[in-house]
Amino acid sequence: MVRNSLIAWLLSTCVIALTPSVGTTQPTVFKSLMALLPADTEALGAPKVHKVSAETQTAVVKSLMAALRADVEALGAPKVQGGDLYFGNTKVSPDTVGFGTVKRLGGEASVFLKSGDQYVRVATTLKKEDGTSAVGAPLAANSLALAKLNNGEAYYGNATVFGKSYDAGYVPIKDASGAVIGAFFVGNPK
CB 168: neighbour CB atoms within 10 A? Predict the structure, then answer.
């Protein structure tokens, strides 16, 4: 799994790096490369477990975070309006936030709204232990990320979310005044 995720990350990084030179054919080239990805990973056979350095794991998570942020922040500046999180004029919900890039690369993602002392998932790919969507579920009160987010700082490290272990990243979402109004989460399964 980690090897396949790393291969996918490397392919997507190459696509991103080539974007300026590709010009108007970018969507076609990107789709072609992504279509080849499953065939390439299947050709490798059963995944083998390899030790991956903490630096590499953090780099993968930061790459997933960059993809998520680019997709969501392209909608506009973040703000809270009427108790809901918006990017530009788009209200964040499971129907409006796409996690396609993160999912294709083997990761999980969430967007949180800060509500009082809690961070509540307003869009996510995660499922709770019972298999239902984790939309509406708060960030665990014992999460190592909580203090960092409340201080306006990112957290990168280990996280257990709904009983599963991840190499994870949490980055605060700040409004125009600099106040923390939510958070992004990405996780690469261990």
Answer: 28
Residue 176 has phi, psi (to 5 degrees) of -60, -25
What ranges do the domains of the chain cover?
A: 2-51, 55-189
Helix, strand, coil shares, percent, the chain, to 5: 40, 30, 30
Distance in angstroms (rounded) separating the CA atoms of residues 143 and 138: 11
pLDDT in tens, the chain (190 residues): 544 554 454 445 544 444 444 343 344 434 444 444 454 445 555 454 455 677 788 899 999 999 999 989 999 999 999 999 999 999 999 888 888 888 888 899 999 999 998 999 999 999 999 999 999 999 999 999 999 999 999 999 999 999 999 999 999 999 999 999 999 999 999 8
Cα Dmax for the chain? 51
The CATH topology of domain 55-189 is Beta-Lactamase (3.30.450)
39-62: b (≥16 Cβ within 10 Å) or e? eebeeeeeeeeeebeeeebbbbbe
Residue linked to tokens 């076609």: 28
Q: Are 129 and 163 in contact (CB under 8 A)?
A: yes
pTM equals: 0.72
Tell me which amino acid residue 70 is.
A
